[in-house]
Design goal:
The complex is a heterodimer. Chain A is mainly alpha-helical. Helices cover 78% and strands 0% of the residues of chain A. The chains are: A mainly alpha, B mainly alpha. At the A-B interface, α6, α7 and α10 of A face α2, α3 and α4 of B.
């Protein structure tokens, strides 16, 4: 709980800093708060709030692993937004504050014990996102992205609420442990199944899994790139954290239905995401579809649920997130100075911009799953998990579609290394170079020491 | 609270009314193109859930869901505040609140 209080307070304080024109202080303060919450989660300094919380949230090992990844990724994200927005923008501190509030919601979401907290966490996570998606006020694309995200998000909020109320109606409690007990003693109730399906629909929407993916490409393309990076990384980690928790709780109820449901969604998501991404020309839209495909891939570890799935999912998402943040960041730097947003436009980036291209290539190769980089082990662990779980056919499908996905990333990489002199040398500041360097090192290090990272994330 | 008054109506009636209200909200979002009407539909969906939660709460003789209703109301207010701000912003840019005017993003 200390981490949540700290982050929320820092968010409010950051807005005040903007009011008093002390903008420079906001970034160091937020980074410091995020790093100290990493320590809070690692050493379990949560404080004793049990008298107030009434068992609604639990900061156990599960919540620790997910929160660590969420906070770690958001440090990179805040650093990225520092370079995305120019220093002079008026409401920079408000943007930091919104991101921090949303991270707080993500932490609440992965530590829920009561369905009320599931709902509140989802909302605290999403409401800042609607504002951020529309935060580029003059741009019609950003307006449209924000509105689309808002309307679909509010619609699925109502669906989530209906589901939670049905589950409550079936057993008369919001507390997950009480509901599990009721399922075991009273037996299954059709109202519960209906409610669980509605809640799963809302969660699949947040993850942009296939039947509910329509918002993703539009929001990714129209929204400011920081928000795109945020939605494709931190939000997905938080949503999958809550989904995994919800699934372990559904596991007490006739598991076959849910496994078949997830098999269907997973295969559909992989097929759709990878095949449609081949047709894309806009970089952000392509990453939206490949993000959809990655969610389908991660679902494999949810289908074969055991004590390893959580760590493998987290490793995959951590690897994906850092590469995505680096990729989006470099793309936005290129876009800001040259106004390129297609893949063909990136042709010949390497001729005059060696350093940026190196970062871009590392991110893309990590996405594609080229061995020493982290993306390879992210895919490897999940495929190995499927094989050991006796789902060899699913592993084969996953491999085939990751090859199709790799084609997309290599297509961009091939464009970058073309011999072409169209893009002039871009100006990049020293601090931005350091950010790119740190991200590159992180991608390589996570890939070189996969066992240590997995051991650290296991719960 | 006078529970007997609430329980004079069977639970299935409450579920039916909530389901009808929720469906009206869903249809409103899918069919109407005016932003304000769409926001109204979202509110209608959330309030149908409120009604259902209160009915279940009385029938289970447990007050948790009545507290939950207040959470829903607060979140709905926050959400609509964001939505209306977005509406004003869009109106300033394109001088209409018909969402068919927003067609920048397509594949």
């Amino acid at each position: 709980m200390n981490a949540i209080i700290l982050l929320a307070a820092v968010g409010v304080f950051s807005m005040f800093l903007g009011l008093f024109r002390l903008r420079v202080l906001a970034l160091p303060m937020i980074i410091l708060a995020l790093i100290s919450s990493l320590f809070i989660f690692e050493y379990g300094w949560h404080g004793d709030f049990s008298a107030y919380l009434n068992n609604m949230v639990a900061f156990d090992h599960y919540s620790r692993s997910f929160s660590l990844v969420i906070v770690f990724t958001s440090i990179f994200l805040i650093l990225m937004s520092r370079h995305y927005y120019s220093e002079k923008i008026e409401h920079l501190t408000d943007i930091y504050a919104l991101i921090i509030f949303s991270v707080t919601g993500g932490i609440l979401l992965v530590s829920f014990q009561s369905l009320v907290m599931l709902f509140l966490g989802t909302e605290i996570l999403s409401i800042p996102l609607y504002i951020l998606a529309a935060s580029n006020r003059r741009s019609l694309e950003s307006n449209e992205a924000g509105l689309k995200y808002f309307l679909t998000g509010a619609f699925f909020t109502a669906v989530l609420l209906l589901g939670i109320t049905f589950i409550y109606g079936a057993y008369g409690s919001f507390d997950t442990s009480a509901i599990i007990q009721a399922i075991q003693t009273v037996g299954p109730s059709p109202l519960f199944v209906l409610g669980a399906v509605l809640v799963l629909c809302a969660m699949l929407f947040k993850l942009s899994a296939v039947p509910f993916h329509y918002w993703a490409p539009d929001v990714y393309q129209g929204a400011p790139t920081v928000l795109t990076a945020y939605v494709s990384t931190v939000v997905k980690i938080a949503a999958i954290g809550s989904l995994l928790k919800f699934m372990t709780f559904l596991g007490f109820y006739e598991s076959d239905i849910w496994i078949n449901l997830f098999l269907f969604v997973s295969i559909l998501t992989m097929v759709y995401g990878n095949i449609v991404s081949v047709l894309q020309t806009n970089f952000k839209r392509l990453l939206a579809y490949s993000g959809i495909a990655n969610v389908g891939f991660v679902f494999i570890a949810i289908i074969i649920i055991n004590e390893n799935s959580g760590a493998y999912i987290l490793y995959n998402l951590l690897a994906y997130s850092i590469s995505a943040i680096l990729g989006f960041s470099i793309y936005s730097t290129v876009k800001k100075q040259t106004d390129i947003d297609t893949i063909d436009g990136l042709a010949g980036l390497i001729t005059n911009n060696k350093f940026l291209s190196a970062g871009f290539l590392i991110a893309l190769l990590s996405f594609a799953g080229i061995p020493p980089l982290s993306g390879f082990f992210g895919k490897y662990f999940i495929i190995a998990h499927a094989v050991f779980g006796n789902y060899v056919w699913l592993a084969v499908i996953a491999v085939i579609f990751s090859v199709i996905g790799a084609y997309n990333y290599l297509r961009i990489a091939a464009a970058i290394v073309k011999n072409n002199n169209d893009i002039p040398a871009l100006e990049i500041s020293m601090s931005y170079k350091i950010f790119v360097l740190i991200s590159m090192i992180a991608i390589v290090l996570i890939g070189i020491f996969p066992d240590q990272v997995i051991g650290f994330l296991r719960f | 609270m006078n529970d007997t008054l609430v329980m004079a109506v069977p639970l299935s009636h409450y579920i039916a009314v909530s389901a009808i209200l929720f469906s009206i909200g869903v249809i409103g979002i899918l069919m109407r193109r005016n932003l304000i009407v769409m926001f109204l539909s979202i509110e209608l969906m959330l309030n149908s859930v409120n009604l259902l939660a209160v009915a279940f709460s009385v029938y289970h003789n447990d007050s948790n869901a009545q507290a939950f209703v207040f959470f829903i109301m607060v979140v709905a207010a926050a959400e609509i505040a964001v939505g209306l701000a977005m509406l004003v912003m869009i109106y300033r840019n394109i001088r209409t609140i018909d969402i068919d005017a927003l067609k920048q993003l397509k594949w």
